[in-house]
Write a structure and sequence with these properties.
The chain is mainly α. 48% of the residues lie in helices and 1% in strands.
């Protein structure tokens, strides 16, 4: 401290040092230039003695002034560059005289307090907690990675043999399942032979079939009777009603289809091509809008989770538990709203100071403005550059130099806050500089100054931002497991979670689009069904000028059916639905029975106590392990032929399968229906 005090008096002011150094450099360059110009003039005078000496003197003076002006500009640029280097790189050593001295930036009285050993240990503990949380997240997201441990005595229990592991099937159960699948295959083969009698017998069985005798399924004695004329007409009317309902549904669902008519005088205009029709979006635009909405929903969910980590985690696992990251004992203190606003203001001030420094350090950068009426000219590319500057140009240069001087003073005041404030008093004839004649107040200590954060608060804010960055990285890794894992370890390797052998099959883009279209069609069909089933509901519209008349009360409306007719039609439709379901069950016996009743049970149709006895015609034995028993066939009734009054009069035998399908046989309903 004694050496610093003794040598501080020898340190010159920054302005005086810069002025002296610039003056010496300018004088040296000017002397050198003048010597070289004198030599050139002597050679010129010796070669051309007729040149006017007065003109040469004037040109020489003009050249000297221009050269000196250029040297001053270059010297200012050099000083600005040097100042920028000092400002941008404070870690570089200061080049100064050997007698100069300085005080350490970090040991100054106003330096912020350094962290203590306890704070360093607390920070190390927080980083260790963050590393442990990161390791837990990696272990949770990548269960396929091996467990790394340095404990030779460590042991683990098998995931598949744990107490809560799902029960594995035994060898007997596997054999039983194989028998069941074999029985299902045999039943499927039997159903195929029964549903498709037109299929030929394979060549391998022709030898057996040649010796066997067969009888026609439709000419058998037990075939059900043919339906009567009234029943045929009733079925024809039901099918015609169903056809008309289908056509009505098609017309309602697809109004864009053209109207087919046999009337040559009929005319109409398209609803969708009218002048006032709104513009329709294409399929690609609809898909793009759906994807955009899905992306927006996903981004919204990600933003909510990222912006509100304090929200509870929703889980369906009753055994899951967790502790709050922000309420743990070692959690750093959270900044308040005032501190956050103060930090925003500090960052805004820093951005403004950075913008000011860039404008000051790079005057060659063009000025960017959005005002089309603003214009300017370049000092170095002006038309009169090689000539003598005019009065207006001199005034412009004077103003530029004055602005540069003010910017220089501003930079010195910013870089050296320890220098005293020099008060400049301007009079009409002269300017006076005084030191200590005014009463200034410190910008940072003024009553209205915002509260400054301490060194601990700054470190706390840095830790909070680091934790937020780590949480964001963890959220990105969790939300996007498809992103590749970045590592610098050349020996690390892994396998893809989505392409592993046991991975579930992923749907393609075409399948996703097909599913979306299927859901859209289902929604449209649901809306159509609601509109069709509830015509009494009012039509909802946002157009206040829209008006309409009742479809059912119009003059040309068809006669409405009564309640009895509606009930009769509902009964017919219910019967048609039941017949359709019966036909599906009859044609596809291999399909499983679907029910929503968990207590429902079933018994075999062929093994029921009331099944009729039927003697088997073949001695073929089923395979070992098959659940299809020969005794199951002896209870089936003999299939009899069907003849109705229609068959008696026309001689045409009705399909027995149709009679069994619709349950229209009058003699043996139990044998004809399941």
């Amino acid at each position: 401290m004694g050496n610093q005090a003794s040598s501080s008096a020898k340190v010159q002011q920054p302005d005086e040092m810069l002025e002296n150094e610039r003056g010496l450099n300018v004088e040296n360059v000017v002397d050198t230039k003048r010597v070289s110009e004198e030599e050139e003039e002597e050679e010129y005078y010796s070669s051309d003695s007729d040149t006017d000496s007065e003109t040469d003197d004037e040109d020489e003076e003009e050249d000297d002034e221009e050269f000196l002006e250029r040297l001053r500009i270059l010297e200012d640029a050099k000083q600005l560059k040097k100042l920028a280097i000092m400002f941008a790189h404070p870690e570089l050593p200061v080049e100064s005289e050997p007698t100069a001295c300085a005080r350490c930036y970090f040991d100054r009285p106003s330096a912020p307090e350094q962290e203590t050993v306890e704070e360093a240990e607390e920070r190390a503990q927080i980083l260790a907690d963050a590393a442990a949380l990161k390791q837990v997240a990696i272990d949770y997201l990548h269960p396929e990675l091996p467990v790394v441990t340095n404990d030779s005595a460590a042991c683990a229990r098998c995931y598949f043999d744990r107490a809560s592991a799902p029960e594995q099937e035994s060898f007997e159960e596997a054999e039983e399942r194989a028998h069941i699948l074999e029985d299902a295959a045999a039943l499927k083969k039997l159903a195929t032979d029964f549903a498709h009698p037109e299929v030929g017998i394979p060549a391998a069985q022709l030898a057996l079939v040649a010796a066997a005798a067969t009888r026609c399924f439709f000419d058998r004695v037990s075939a059900p009777d043919q339906e009567s004329l009234e029943e045929a007409e009733e079925r024809a009317r039901i099918l015609e009603d169903a056809k008309q309902l289908k056509q009505l549904a098609v017309d309602y669902m697809h109004p864009e289809l053209p109207v087919v008519s046999n009337d040559p005088t009929a005319c109409a205009r398209c609803y969708f091509d009218r002048y006032s029709a709104p513009e329709q979006e294409s399929m690609e635009e609809a898909e793009e809008r759906a994807m955009a909405l899905a992306d927006a929903a996903a981004l919204k969910q990600a933003a909510i989770e990222y912006l509100h980590p304090e929200l509870p985690v929703v889980s369906n696992d009753s055994t899951a538990c967790a502790r709050c990251y922000f309420d743990r004992p070692s959690a750093p203190e959270q900044e308040s709203m005032e501190e956050a606003e103060e930090r925003v203001r500090i960052l805004a001030d820093a951005a403004a100071l950075k913008k000011l420094a860039v404008d000051y350090m790079h005057p060659e950068v063009p000025v960017t403005t959005s005002d089309p009426t603003v214009f300017g000219r370049n000092y170095f590319n002006r038309a009169s550059a090689p000539e003598q500057e005019s009065l207006e140009e001199a005034e412009e240069r004077a103003r530029i130099l004055a602005d540069a001087k003010q910017l220089k003073e501003l930079a010195i005041d910013y870089m050296h806050p320890e220098l005293p404030v020099v008060n400049k008093v301007s009079l009409e004839s002269a300017e006076f500089y005084t030191i200590g004649s005014t009463e200034p107040r410190c910008f940072f200590d003024r009553p209205s100054a915002p509260e400054q954060e301490s060194f601990e608060e700054a470190e706390e804010r840095a830790r909070v931002l680091a934790d937020a960055a780590a949480l964001k990285k963890l959220a990105v890794d969790y939300m996007h497991p498809e992103l590749p894992v970045t590592t610098t370890d050349a020996t690390a390797f892994g396998r893809n979670y989505f392409t592993r052998p046991s991975a579930a099959e992923q749907e393609t883009v075409e399948e996703a689009e097909e599913r979306a279209m299927a859901l859209a069609d289902a929604a449209a069909l649901k809306q159509l069904a609601v509109d069709y089933m509830h015509p009494e509901l009012p039509v909802v519209s946002n157009d206040t000028t829209a008006c309409a008349r009742s479809y059912f009360d119009r003059a040309s409306a068809v006669e409405q059916e009564t309640v009895e007719e509606a009930e009769e039609r509902a009964q017919i439709l219910a019967d048609a639905t039941a017949l359709k379901q019966l036909a599906v069950d009859y044609m596809h016996p291999e399909l499983p029975v679907v029910t929503s009743d968990p207590t429902a049970c079933a018994r075999c149709y062929f093994d029921r106590p009331s099944a009729p006895v039927h003697s088997a015609t073949t001695s073929t034995k089923p395979k070992q392990g098959s659940s299809v028993r020969a005794s199951s066939f002896k209870h089936q009734p003999a299939i009899k032929t069907v003849e109705t009054h229609l068959g008696k009069t026309t001689g045409v035998r009705k399909s027995a399968s149709a009679v069994q399908l619709y349950g229209l046989d009058g003699e043996d309903n139990d044998a004809g229906l399941f």
